[in-house]
Amino acid sequence: MDAPRFAFFGTPQLAVEILDALVAAGYAPILIVTMPDRVKGRGLETAETPVAAWAHERGITTSKPEKLDAAFIEDFKKCDINFSIVVAYGKILPQSLLDVAPMYNVHYSLLPRWRGATPVESAILAGDVETGVAIQKIVYELDAGPLVAVEKTAIGADEAAPALRARLNAIAKRLLVNIMPALASGDISLTEQEGAQATLCGKISKEDGLIDLADNAEENYRKFRAYTSWPGIYTFFKRGDKRIRVIITQAHLKGKRLVLDTVKPEGKDEMPYADFLRSGAKPS
């Protein structure tokens, strides 16, 4: 069989790891589609996405459309793509693009549970004991496409989102490589999702990281695990008349009590929580 002519839509480092696995298995995309370059940092320098940098190093044709409009789709048709793989791309795919050739998405949950942008964090927040990876054929309705492959895994009691996401991506790489011959031939078996069982998850905001230490300890610990990389969790203390924003950098659950190990008060370096309390600060 000839090498499949496929495109890859993706943006962050997570997607780069998938690309590395595909290339190592002998599957290189003929086209990369990623988010446009953005100005970032204090120097206001233009930076390309991790996926764009990966493609640039390998001389793979790359498109960075601001919009997936008619002009982009006409150019896409000229590439004679057999199918596309989508991993954390960052844009809604219009029906006119889906009509060109099949598109398959790697999703980090057991669909139909946690359709949406934050499935890893949402599984932890809900106290789910298992999650997994689902590869779906994309339809226009959000994460509602028929399933090509699914694999489950348990969520560790103390596992935080970065570690869980890394494990899920390892599963995703293996799953995707295993089904590439079927995707290339079109000889795939699709299983429709049970839409009545669907749950949704939205985007995360900075404000989501706020906790009240008087709230349920287990729920606060789930927030810590889910938001440890971003936005982080924080609370407020008072010292005299001053209100202090405090980021919780390390914590653990002991019985039914949330134990803070290290914190970072605003304007200060990270320190042991016990040292911070000696300053006279109290939860507000």
Structure report:
This is Methionyl-tRNA formyltransferase. It is a single chain. The protein is α/β, with parallel strands linked by helices and 284 residues long. It folds into 2 domains: 196 residues, Rossmann fold, CATH 3.40.50.170; 78 residues, Methionyl-tRNA Fmet Formyltransferase, Chain A, domain 2 (Roll), CATH 3.10.25.10. It has a 7-stranded mixed β-sheet with strand order 5-2-1-6-7-9-10. Strands 15-14-13-12-16 form a 5-stranded antiparallel β-sheet. The termini are far apart.
Would you tell me the structural class of the helices and strands? alpha/beta
The CATH superfamily of the largest domain appears as: Formyl transferase, N-terminal domain
What is the helix content? 25-40%
Major sheet attributes: 7 strands, mixed
| Low-confidence runs | none
Q: Kindly state the number of beta strands.
A: 16
The topology string of helices and strands comes to: EHEEEHEHEHEEHEEHEHEEEEHE
Distance between the termini: 66 Å
In CATH, the architecture of the largest domain is: 3-Layer(aba) Sandwich
What CATH calls the topology of the largest domain is Rossmann fold
